[in-house]
């Protein structure tokens, strides 16, 4: 006796169709095998499937059952095959009408009493189903919102195994949920706003420049000066997410199992702030069952590393690949996966171990050696990827109690959008999209400065003791500042402002 149903599984952030076959034989002793590279939860699905069938009123056959998951050469993880395995067995036992089974996909974990539990990766599974002319998909009720964002695919949330069988046998009407085709990506739904931040005009301006050119930024200031508060508000001024970005970010969160049933599709830019004790795998992804890391969870959003020097050296080291390539490649013995990782990096740190080196109101207790050691924990190659460094001074009490609200995120954002539009045109047909991603040849082409500018830059480099590494960063950031003013050429005032954003390079401070 034989039964076959279609299901799906995720590889990286995309899904592929899996055929679940059940072969039942009248041989004793009764047994249950799963083949087709099952891993972890799939191996254990036998126990859940048999209990769920029994508790749903089906008799467990005293037979030798073989389940095959095809294609057989890809490892399969997760509990989403419980439902298709149960239905394939029931097909083999002639309990289910096989009429529609080649046009629908079944996914769902089973509880021991036969209820359908939510699974990971539903969005990519639905996108794949649509691509392969599947008519509909049966999903656990908690996954329905996420599934309903794929147009043209019938989504049927079903609560129990028993109901699935009734529906397939035409004994119960199928309830299809409506596709959600109308999610508004433009409204600002962030719980925080830039206007919450009092004073700090300089820092806010630096963040605006960073957002306009997609430059990574480092905030340096004493404890309580508002670094975390400012960083959290960066996503609120970035351009609204496009539909493509929203779906891609949601796919990653879905695969990581972080999408909850209420959100559905992620329409606001993610803000991730992993603790400094995070491991390299946690940050860039991987593990025995590969999972996206924080760099991918912040895809199309902001990755905030608070207390940057406290992160382990090897962890900061692995950040270089995603910062350069905008994705992460994870290699396993039989498998290579790529997760997207395009994010803006915001890092924060105190200026010294005690935190008060730059604070006029508190005395710093660190000596030069301590400060040097503290700073040396951030490697040069990582600093090379951070275009803007800015001091965040403690805000005086009068400013904090000032009733006048600052500029709202919604009025800052259009300026950023305009600057980004200029860059989109500039880099049309190229691999890069923003000024921050310019390489040496692009910098030479798009960041030309006149004699006056050159003289200014030379004086600044000599006087402030700026390092050679600072030179290209200053040019890129000045390009962004000029774009914000819709200026074709980079003028002296653009360069002067960009020079300000190199706090950490200034030899006067820490060298
Ligand atoms: N400019 C500001 N406007 C309004 N509130 C502020 C401002 N700066 C700081 N605060 C208040 O101070 C609190 C502490 O700020 P925050 O945690 O962002 O500081 P921090 O620089 O990240 O400190 P730490 O170095 O200790 O992490 C904020 O939650 C906020 O309530
Ligand atoms: Mg903080």
3D shape = elongated
Q: How much strand? A: 15-25%
Q: Low-confidence runs (pLDDT<50, min 5 residues)?
A: none
Q: Tell how many strands the DSSP assignment holds.
A: 18
* Distinct bound molecules: adenosine-5'-triphosphate, magnesium ion
Strand order of the largest sheet: 11-14-17-10-18
The CATH superfamily of the largest domain is identified as P-loop containing nucleotide triphosphate hydrolases
Question: Can you give the helix content as a percent range?
Answer: 25-40%
User: Could you give a short account of the major beta sheet?
Assistant: 5 strands, parallel
CATH A-level architecture of the largest domain: 3-Layer(aba) Sandwich
Can you walk me through this structure?
The chain has 22 helices and 18 strands. The protein is elongated, with a radius of gyration of 28 Å. The model has no long low-confidence stretch (mean pLDDT 89). Helix 7 runs parallel beside helix 17. The longest helix has 18 residues. It has 511 residues and is α/β, with parallel strands linked by helices. The termini are far apart. The chain has 3 domains: 167 residues, Ribosomal Protein S5, domain 2 (2-Layer Sandwich); 217 residues, P-loop containing nucleotide triphosphate hydrolases (Rossmann fold); 74 residues, no CATH class. The structure holds adenosine-5'-triphosphate (ATP) and magnesium ion (MG). The site of adenosine-5'-triphosphate has 15 residues, from helix 8.
């Amino acid at each position: 006796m034989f039964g076959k149903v279609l299901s799906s599984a995720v590889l990286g952030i995309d899904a592929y169709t899996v055929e679940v076959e059940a072969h039942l034989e009248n041989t004793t002793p009764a047994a249950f095998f799963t083949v087709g590279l099952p891993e972890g939860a799939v191996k254990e699905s036998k126990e859940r499937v048999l209990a769920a069938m029994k508790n749903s009123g089906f008799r467990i056959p005293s037979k030798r059952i073989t389940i095959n998951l095809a294609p057989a050469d890809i490892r399969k993880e997760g509990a989403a095959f419980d439902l298709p395995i149960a239905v394939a067995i029931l097909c083999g036992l002639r309990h289910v009408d096989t009429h529609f089974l080649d046009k629908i996909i079944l996914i769902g974990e089973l509880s021991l009493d036969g209820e359908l539990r939510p699974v990971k990766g539903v969005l990519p599974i639905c996108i794949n189903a649509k691509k392969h002319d599947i008519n509909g998909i049966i999903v656990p009720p908690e996954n329905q919102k996420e599934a309903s964002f794929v147009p043209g695919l019938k989504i049927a949330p079903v609560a129990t195994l028993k109901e699935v069988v009734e529906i397939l046998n035409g004994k119960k009407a199928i309830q299809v949920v409506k596709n959600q085709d109308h999610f508004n990506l433009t409204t600002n739904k962030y719980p925080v706003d830039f206007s919450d931040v009092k004073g700090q005009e300089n820092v806010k301006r630096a963040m605006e420049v960073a957002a306009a050119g997609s430059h990574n930024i480092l905030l340096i200031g004493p404890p309580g000066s508002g670094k975390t508060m400012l960083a959290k508000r960066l996503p609120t001024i970035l351009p609204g997410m496009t539909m493509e970005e929203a779906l891609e970010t949601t796919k990653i969160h879905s695969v990581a199992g972080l999408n909850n049933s209420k959100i559905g599709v992620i329409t606001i830019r993610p803000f991730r702030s992993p603790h400094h004790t995070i491991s390299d795998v946690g940050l860039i992804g991987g593990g025995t069952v590969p999972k996206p890391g924080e760099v991918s969870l912040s895809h199309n959003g902001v990755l905030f590393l608070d207390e940057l020097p406290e992160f382990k050296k090897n962890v900061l080291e692995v950040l270089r690949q995603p910062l350069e390539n905008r994705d992460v490649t994870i290699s396993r013995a039989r498998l290579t996966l790529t997760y997207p990782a395009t994010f803006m990096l915001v890092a924060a740190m105190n200026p010294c171990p005690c935190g008060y080196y730059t604070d006029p109101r508190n005395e710093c207790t660190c000596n030069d050696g301590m400060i040097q050691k503290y700073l040396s924990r951030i490697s040069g190659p990582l600093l090379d990827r951070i275009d803007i460094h800015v001091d965040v001074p403690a805000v005086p009490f009068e400013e904090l109690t000032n009733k006048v609200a600052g500029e709202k995120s919604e009025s800052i954002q259009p300026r950023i959008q305009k600057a980004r539009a200029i860059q989109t045109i500039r880099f049309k047909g190229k691999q890069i999209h923003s000024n921050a991603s310019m390489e040496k040849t692009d910098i030479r082409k798009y960041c030309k400065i006149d004699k006056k500018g050159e003289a200014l830059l030379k004086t600044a480099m000599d006087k402030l003791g700026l390092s050679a590494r600072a030179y290209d960063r200053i040019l890129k950031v000045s390009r962004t500042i000029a774009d914000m003013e819709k200026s074709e050429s980079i003028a002296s005032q653009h360069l002067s402002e960009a020079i300000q954003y190199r706090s950490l390079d200034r030899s006067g401070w820490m060298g």
